[in-house]
Amino acid sequence: MGKSKSRSFFGYPLSIFFIVVNEFCERFSYYGMKAILILYFTNFISWDDNLSTAIYHTFVALCYLTPILGALIADSWLGKFKTIVSLSIVYTIGQAVISVSSINDLTDHNHDGTPDSLSVHVVLSMIGLALIALGTGGIKPCVSAFGGDQFEEGQEKQRNRFFSIFYLAINAGSLLSTIITPMLRVQQCGIHSKQACYPLAFGVPAALMAVALIVFVLGSGMYKKFKPQGNIMGKVAKCIGFAIKNRFRHRSKAFPKREHWLDWAKEKYDERLISQIKMVTRVMFLYIPLPMFWALFDQQGSRWTLQATTMSGKIGALEIQPDQMQTVNAILIVIMVPIFDAVLYPLIAKCGFNFTSLKKMTIGMFLASMAFVVAAIVQMEIDKTLPVFPKGNEVQIKVLNIGNSTMNISLPGEMVTLDPMYQTNAFMTFDVNKLTSINISSPGSPVTAVTDDFKQGQRHTILVWAPNHYQVVKDGLNQKPEKGENGIRFVNTFNELITVTMSGKVYANISSYNVSKYQFFPSGIKGFTISSTEIPPQCQRNFNTFYLEFGSAYTYIVKRKNDSCPEVKEFEDISANTVNMALQIPQYFLLTCGEVVFSVTGLEFSYSQAPSNMKSVLQAGWLLTVAVGNIIVLIVAGAGQFSKQWAEYILFAALLLVVCVIFAAMARFYTYINPAEIEAQFDEDEKKKRLEKSNPYFMSGANSQTQM
């Protein structure tokens, strides 16, 4: 073991402060990148929600599968310190690559604001993500175990507190980065065209990863470093394989049973290794039900964020973007870990209740399950407020009178009279096959039949401005605008082309009596400028929208006043979200309490129950449960295409509840051990054996004493 002088500070080894700061920077880097990843996929690479969610969870799963590799490298080849340093370098390169992949001007040769070859960006970002998954996953099991290694025997209390501080550092890093990176993303940057600033939002995490690496290397002189102990995983696999083979060979009744199936390896392997493997397999067995917890937990970044996009982010004077809701989890962790550690656990102990690690984990699973029940209730509330969109062979129609005289519109079973600059109250729903005749007329003029092809499953707006003049427009909005943004389109009633510029986005050359496509904007008041050759120079051209909230859509009509100047009138197409994002706080609170009692405890339990040479292996096993959890999300969400989102939440809650009961039953039969004591016993026995070999009289003398 490479030992350095271990200096201490408040009874803690000084070296762990470097490890905690390193973890803080590394987590800032990882969560900062992860917070904007799903929006990078949907907005920049233009993938749809389902593909983005699938790639996102695949990436997260990969980040938690690679710890196996990291543990192997650390325990059998490089040792924890060198593994952390070398994989951090890989990690930093990965972060830099994904930052480069998001530079729009990289392939935008014609400077039109969109990349000319998206495939270059996709390939680069996938290489970046692969390197990040290898880096972050590879160092994960090593950093926590390396921190645990810094403590002496008899410092269990400090070590447990270290795991809590370590978890606090993880969440402080994630909290700051999930607040900061979305802010960086909404900045505009670019050489030739201004875009959402993904290079900056990915670049800051890359810089922090480099800082994490430097801080870690600075503490090098103070660490206790253990030499790697040969390929421990290989030995474990061989020993287990031999035990199973040997048991199978001696399966007849003639051979006496052995206490444990691993005892069948005694012919070839020493007792110490067998006993260490027994410790590991007993814990690994307990891990089998755990992925279900992570399957629910990791939906905060995907499903819950998408739920937030259908809600209103105005909480009092604050205004929250949907992707910032995840910060609630990190804020609550930073508050709850100290409360649980300093108040709740000591209180429970005072009441004489033995709140063991596994009991805590069972409670954690139950709380996460309840969080999803709450999410389902919130979803039902949201569903009540969502507009009804056409399904199957339905079509929806609304009529908008943009002319100067009153119009009568007859639809199947409906007669509507519209004054100038008015629209029908809402979209009317018809069966496309029964939509036989729509007629337009005005007093004293002949009837005009609307002969247009209505696409099933779509919303349409009929613009009318004279008895024989109309235009049918396919809206193209079949759901609430994504990410809680607001859709705006313009109708031109001038005779010449007009161009509208709003918050940096351009509606170019809208022809006379025609409508633009929707463009999308975040909440707030937006300024826009109207330009046309038909507008006299003295006219006002700059206008403001009223305050845009979340998830609405509007049509703005640009009409000519008597003095030939433009004026603007707005009509609502989709109403803004009304259910407040604050309603998500209870589900985040339950899930966070579940995480505190489940995750911090799990980390500490994995370390305390592992033999000294397999600490990283068990940490990797613990992280593997997270990977499997993300794979479960992919399977469940892919297999059960639910028409109602709340039903999916209830299914997940029910699955976790069942798993929770199974885990509680398994935990009842687990006996806690102290690996250090067991190993000390083996050391003692080996010492005696060595003494016997070197001094044959040592034992015989002792025997004759007892016989006398």
UniProtKB/TrEMBL annotation:
Q: Which GO terms describe its cellular component?
A: apical plasma membrane; brush border
Give me the reactions it catalyses: glycylglycyl-L-proline(out) + H(+)(out) = glycylglycyl-L-proline(in) + H(+)(in); glycylglycyl-L-isoleucine(out) + H(+)(out) = glycylglycyl-L-isoleucine(in) + H(+)(in); L-methionyl-L-phenylalanyl-L-methionine(out) + H(+)(out) = L-methionyl-L-phenylalanyl-L-methionine(in) + H(+)(in); carnosine(out) + H(+)(out) = carnosine(in) + H(+)(in)
* Membrane-spanning ranges: 53-74, 81-98, 118-139, 160-180, 200-223, 279-297, 328-349, 361-380, 588-608, 620-643, 649-670
Q: Which gene encodes it?
A: SLC15A1
- Share what the entry says about its subunit structure, partners included: Interacts (via extracellular domain region) with trypsin.
Q: Report the subcellular localization.
A: Apical cell membrane; Membrane
Known function: Electrogenic proton-coupled amino-acid transporter that transports oligopeptides of 2 to 4 amino acids with a preference for dipeptides. Transports neutral and monovalently charged peptides with a proton to peptide stoichiometry of 1:1 or 2:1. Primarily responsible for the absorption of dietary di- and tripeptides from the small intestinal lumen. Mediates transepithelial transport of muramyl and N-formylated bacterial dipeptides contributing to recognition of pathogenic bacteria by the mucosal immune system.
Q: Name one GO molecular function term.
A: dipeptide transmembrane transporter activity
Provide the primary localization: membrane
**The protein, known as:** Solute carrier family 15 member 1
Listed A to Z, the keywords are:
Cell membrane, Glycoprotein, Membrane, Peptide transport, Protein transport, Symport, Transmembrane, Transmembrane helix, Transport
What does the record say about its membrane topology?
Answer: Multi-pass membrane protein
Sorted alphabetically, the Gene Ontology BP terms of this entry are: dipeptide import across plasma membrane; protein transport
Which family is it part of? Belongs to the major facilitator superfamily. Proton-dependent oligopeptide transporter (POT/PTR) (TC 2.A.17) family.
